[in-house]
Structures are given as structure tokens and as C-alpha cells.
Amino acid sequence: MTKRAARLFFFISTLVSALIFTVLTIDSHRQFPKLTNAAAIDEHVIAGKHVWHQYNCTNCHTLLGEGAYYAPDLTKITAQRGAPYLREFLKNPGKFYSEERDGRLMPTLNLSDQEIDDVIAFLGWVSRIDTQGWPPRPILVRGSAVPGAASALGVPPPAAVSQDPVELGRAVYNATPPGCAACHSVAPGVNIVGPTLAGLPATAAARVAAPDYTGKAKDAAAYIREAIVEPNAHVLTGPTYAAGGRSLMPGDYGQTLTPEQIDQIVAYLLTLR
Amino acid sequence: MRYQSQRVAYPYFVVALLLFGLQMVFGLLSAAKYLGPDPLLTILPFDVTKVIHTNLLLVWLLTAFMGAAYYLVPEESRVELYSVRLAYVQLGLWTGMGVTAVVGYMFGWTAGNKLLEQPFPLKIVIVIVMLMFLYNLGMTIRAGGRLTTTEGVLVGGLAFTALLYLPALFEFDNYTVSVFYRWWTVHLWVEGVWEMIQGALLAFLLIRLSGVDREVLEKWLYVIVGLTFISGILGTAHHYYWIGVPRYWLPIGGFFSALEPFVFLAMAMYAYYAIRRSGFAHPNRMALHWTIGSAVFSAIGAGLLGLAHTWPAVNKWTHGTLITPMHGHMAFFGAYVMIVLGMIAYAMPGLTGRSEDSRETSAHFWSFWLQISGMFGMTMAFAAAGITQTYLERILSIGYLDTQLKLQVHFLMLVATGILFTAGVALFLWDFFFQAGRPVAAPPRETLAPARSPAG
Fold first, then answer.
1. Which of A45, B85, B250, B348 is the most buried (most CB within 10 A)?
2. Same domain, yes or no: A188 and A231
3. HSE-up of A204 (CA within 13 Å, CB side)?
């Protein structure tokens, strides 16, 4: 090869690569609105993006897997935790995590209520971006019991296992959304954010029988259903469970889950004796 | 050194190396924070130390590139620099920008966009500085009327560096789109046009150090740069995994970034070929160490360790884990840090009027080997941590925080080897400032030692 041929190789290969890249970029722009659900980008999402940048979030956390690696990935966080919890967490991270126990802690950023709502709206929008199935398994913030993270062991999709409501319920429980397993373990004594659900039938029966019970349920099954659909019917006290008398569990499972799915989850949870 | 104005490279090297030292302080602080309770949580949290660590890297490398260009271009074009004064003004503005950015980050003044955190006014300063720089180089080349391939590739790389910074000036409401264009700057810098700069500096150093025919080396320089762009431009796609872009970027990213190791392999072969032809004959053995080191370390760090997690089926599990800093640390060190340290080691005897073998001090040797071993250790620490994290957090779905607690031993290793590396950097600085001497006037042209320009 002569120097002239080498130069030609350089110019042509660069030009061709740049051309293909440009064409694909234009085509990507055509697809961005649909893939990113761009119609849902409202002023709150945009304001939330500014909050995300202004507070340098990306230099500890990752989002869409990009950022620093010092704090959890937040791509699907709103699907796992829900707005009430995230609001309370952002006001005071020290209430939920401790440096002694977890090794690190998010500094309190003194965000205004508006900023908190905006950044949650932004993260909510991000959680619905089409990420081509990433992450393949839920990335959890905390939760150390492998038995509790049954999803980790690769539970097959519901249709593939059976029509057994318990198995279907297990699959819904471990899917994100609804993300039950992100906060509740099914291993005894492992409280991730919400209380463990191990031994739930007995706990639930005891709870409805207790004098301080504030809900309407009469038995364990009804209690579990009520706790899913209406978490504020009977609020458990605990630093990561509730704030100001309100449960930190998302309150919209009554709308986001189908009645069949709720039946299935209840059937599954009733087996955790 | 043949031209008085080449001396302007010296203050650039001074600023670059001071910022390099400062980068180590913030790197060690960041690493220490992985070990657990952080006494500085409220005054200097991780996000601040990390953003300063990475921004200092970018700023000091660019400073060193500028210094290297100011040293190289007059010599290649055989003419004095167009304006020494402009070069000094540029350095002042640039340093002021860098210092303002660092102080600003400490007080929360940030654009919060990874690696492009510079607030908008500072971004404008960066653009102005780049324009001054390119103008000065362009006018010099014009005055000399001679443009060699080596300096052409170097100046081309620098010009594209400035051009590709422009997307960083725009803001997009859609986060996915903003990430998409962020990589036009970040990826096309470090895996595109900066490799032009690395390739050009490598070619320059090999021509000077080995005495191999310039025509041959410059021919292969074209091939290397061509390969860089074939793999690098479409290889941008490996940053487009899982971020809300069309699916076809996955196979494109996998295929083209799998070609990237060939670029670095080519550079390593290039250096090997040159050295085989001439042996370690050049008296500036430290410059040789850094030059060959750069070719080898970038082949491992940027080439192989990049390949390790670039395939979509692998990246699906490793995306956003400590596997990325494993690759990032060694790649940046091999490809860019070592080549500019080589350039500095090469330029110093000329700048200070000392003998060619004057750089071969024991402090300099120790600095080389401590940096090599420190960086190797840090890479291994990140690798062990990243693999464990991938397995526990991504495959077994164990919580992020619980997983991090299980990585403590690797973080200890990271801090220990980081200290080793920092010791190497400290020695380099000490050697540069206290043993290498100060710049002197260039000798009259006719007394030039012929060894300095075997293929001039």
C-alpha cells in the first residue's frame, strides 16, 4: 500500500462511517417520540430533569445505567417504590438508610416540595422509556435474602407455568411493575422497606382480631386484599412504613392491577405460612 | 528544541501536571468513600469529589495536548509559533476556567450532565479557548507553508475536539435525546478524535525516538486513523444500549465496537515495529518507556477491557456496574495519560538544554513503574468488584446496597493501589519540578545535535 492509498482509505472509510451514522441518527429522531413516550414530557418532567441536573444526581446514581456507580440505579425506581415513599425518602434519606448499616447514605438535599414532585415526575417518565427489556431482572436497592428475591431465580412468565392462581400470583408479585418484591421480602425477618410477608396469613388474622385494627376486613384474605388496594385502611407504624399517619405504599394498586391479578396475589400470599 | 517559541509548551506542562496531582487527591477521596461511613458527607459528598476527579482529568489532558501541540507544530512546520502571547493568554483563560469549574463544583455550580458538567458560561470560555488555540496553530502552519501528515492528524484531532464539543452547548427536554448527543462529545472524543491525537503523538515520538522512515510511519498512521473511525463512529452505538433508542443500535454497537481493539492492536504493532527496527537506541529512555507503555496499556485497557463488556448480550448484565470504571481507568491512562507523559519526557531535555539521557533519573523510573502497577491494581480491583456486583446484584437480584457491602475487600484494594498510583504521580511531579531543570533559550540552529531529528 502506498501512502496515497492509505490516505484514501482513511478519507473514504471516515466519510462512509459518518454518512451511515448520520442516516441512522435521523431515523432515530423519527422513532424517539414513540420509544421515549415523548408525549408525556410535560412541564413537571422538564422541571424534574433540571432538578436531576442541578443537584448533580448523576455523579452518584445511574439512570438508564449511566452515571456514577456509587448509588443505586434509578431507571425503574418509581415502579418499585411509589411516590409517597420517594417523597418521604427525599425529605430525609437518613430515616430509611444509615451509614452504619448500609455503608453509605444520601446527603439530605433540602429539596422543596415542588422540586421533589418534579423529580419524581421525571423519574416516572424515565421508568416508562422503552429500554429494550433492560434491566433483565429488577435492580433492587436493598434486600439481602436470596430466598426473598425469588424473582432472581428466574420465575418463568405466568402463562408458561400453569393456570394455578397461586403460581400466577407469585409471578405478578415478582414482576416489576407492580414491584411488590422490591419492598417486601417473603423471608422471615427480612424487612427491606415494607415488612416481611413471611407468615402473613397468621399475622393478618391476628391483626384483624386486634382491638386497634382500623380497617373493615374480617379475615386474613380480606385483610391482605384491603392492604393492597387501600394501604391507608390500617397503617402500620415503622420508620420506613408510614409517615404522618399515611402508609408509604403506593395507593393505586386498585387501579393499576386487574381484579384477577389482585386475587392471584392474595392467593399466593395466603400460602406464605 | 529548535524554535524559541516551543518553550511555551513548558507552562502548559506545568499547569497540566499540577492539575494531574490535584486529580489524584479527588480520586483518592472518592475511592475512600467506598469504604463506608463518610466523615465529609455533608461538606464534600461523593458526587462533588467524583465530578472534580473526572473534570480535572479532561482539563489536564487537554492542557497537555495543547502544550504538546505547541511543541510539535513549530518543529514540524519549521517555523516559530505565530503568536507566543496568544498562547499565554489562552493558557491563562483556560486555567482560570478550570479553577473556576473546580471551585464552582464545590459550591454546587454544575450543569449535572455526566462529564459535561461545566456550567454554560464556562462552556463558552472553552469554545473561545479552543478557537484561539486552533487559530494560533493554523496561522503557524500557514506561515511555515509545510504541513506534515503527523501534525495534520494532530491538528485535525484537535479541531474535531473543538467541533464535537458544540453539541454539549445544547439542551434537550427529552433525556434520551440529551444522552444521545452527549455521547457525540464524550465518545467521539475519547474513542474517535482523541485517538487521532494519540496516534499523531505516537507517530511523532516514534519517528523521533526510533529513526524509522517517516514515510512508512505516516502511511500507517493513516491506516490507524482510518480504522479508528470505522470502528469509532458507528461504535458510538455501544453507548446507545438500553437508553430508549431504536433496537438496531444494539447489533451495530456490538459489531463495530468489537473492531475497536484492532485500532489499539495496530498502534501496539506500530510501536513494536518501530522499536524492532531501531532497538532502544535513543538516549531518552524514559520517553521510550512511556511511548511503548502507552501503546501496550491502551491495547489492554481501551481495546481488550472495552471489548469485555461491549457485546449487547454481556452488557445487558454489566451496564452501569463497576465494570465500566475498570475499563475507563486503564483506557484513559494507557491511551492518553501515558502518551502525554511520554511527550513531556521527550520534550524536557530540549526545553531545558540538558542531555538527552538527563531524564533517566531513578525518581522518573520509579514514577513509571509505580504508576503502571498502581493502575494495574486499580483495574483489577474494579474488575473483581464489577464482576461480583454483576453476579450478585444483576443476576441474583440482591439489593444494590447489600452487594456493595460485600465488595468492601475490593474497595480496600482500590484504595491501596490508588495510593501506589498517586505515589507514582507525586514522584513524576517531583522529578519534573525539581530535577528536570527549567527551560532555556533554544541553541543556535547549527549546533543542533543530529540525533534529535533523525528523520526530520
1. B348
2. yes
3. 25
pLDDT at A239: 84
A175: left (phi over 0), alpha (psi -120 to 50) or beta: beta
Taking the Cβ of residue A147 and every Cβ of chain B, the question of whether any pair is shorter than 8 Å is answered with no
Residue B343's nearest CA partner among B206, B449, B147, B443 is B206
* A246 strand-pairing partners: A243
Residues A121 and A101: their CA atoms lie apart, in Å, by 30
Q: Which pLDDT score, from 0 to 100, does residue A163 have?
A: 82
Which grid coordinates are listed for B452?
534529535
Q: How far is CA B442 from the centre of its chain?
A: 29
CATH topology of domain B4-443: Cytochrome C Oxidase; Chain A (1.20.210)
Total domain count, chain A: 2
Label residues B18-36 b or e (16+ Cβ within 10 Å = b).
bbbbbbbebbbbbbbbbee
Query: What's the CATH code of the domain at A116?
Result: 1.10.760.10
Computed over every residue of chain B, the mean pLDDT equals 93
Q: Are A169 and A244 part of one and the same domain?
A: yes
**Grid coordinates standing for B352?**
531545558
DSSP character for B390? Answer: I
C-alpha cell at B382: 474494579
Alpha-carbon distance A17 to nearest alpha carbon in chain B (angstroms)? 6
Instruction: Give how far A116 is from chain B: nearest CA, Å.
Output: 17
Tell me: cis bond preceding A178? Omega within 30 of 0 counts: yes
In this structure, what are the phi and psi dihedrals at residue A67, rounded to the nearest 5 degrees?
145, -145
Is it true that the peptide bond before A158 is cis, omega within 30 degrees of 0?
no
Instruction: Return the closest-CA partner of residue B19 out of B68, B56, B64, B66.
Output: B56
Alpha helices in B78-148 (DSSP H): 84-106, 120-144
ipTM of this predicted structure = 0.94
CB-based contact A108:A89 (threshold 8 Å): no
The answer to whether residues A157 and A118 belong to one domain is no
> So where are chain B's domains?
4-443
Question: Which range of residues forms the domain containing residue A184?
Answer: 150-269
Q: Which residues contact A261 (CB under 8 A, 6 or more apart)?
A: A169, A172
Query: Does residue A119 lie within any of the structural domains?
Result: yes
Does A165 lie in the same domain as A78? Answer: no
Whether residue A164 lies inside any domain: the answer is yes
* Alpha carbon separation from A143 to A102, A152, B397 (Å, rounded): 11, 12, 9
Q: Do residues A228 and A265 both lie within one domain?
A: yes
Whether residue A13 contacts residue B226, with contact meaning beta carbons closer than 8 Å, is answered with yes
Give the pLDDT confidence of B67-112 residue by residue, as tens digits: 999 999 999 999 999 999 999 999 999 999 999 999 999 999 999 9
What pLDDT is recorded for position A146?
A: 55
CA distance A239 to A92: 11
Q: Residue B56: which H helix or E strand, with range? A: helix B46-77
Contact assessment for residue B320 and residue A73, using Cβ atoms and an 8 Å cutoff: yes
Calculate the alpha carbon distances from B118 to B46, B127, B187, B235, B366 in Å: 17, 12, 17, 26, 35
pLDDT band of residue B310 (cuts 50, 70, 90) is very high
Separation of alpha carbons B129 and B107, rounded Å: 24
Query: What per-residue confidence (pLDDT) applies to A189?
Result: 81
Question: Is residue A155 one of the residues assigned to a domain?
Answer: yes
Residue B342 and residue B409 in contact, taking contact as beta carbons nearer than 8 Å:
no
User: Chain B contacts of A17, Cβ < 8 Å?
Assistant: 229-230, 232-234
pTM given for the model: 0.89
Contact list in A for residue B250 (CB cut-off 8 A) is: 132
Q: Are A29 and B20 within 8 A, CB to CB?
A: no
Give yes or no for a contact between B92 and B100, defined as CB atoms under 8 angstroms apart.
Answer: no
**Residue B249 to residue A60, Cβ atoms within 8 A:** no
The x, y and z cell numbers of residue A179, run together, are 414491584
Residue B193: DSSP 8-state? I
Grid cell digits, residue A193: 422497606
Q: Show residues of chain A in contact with B397, CB under 8 Å.
A: 137-140, 149, 151-152
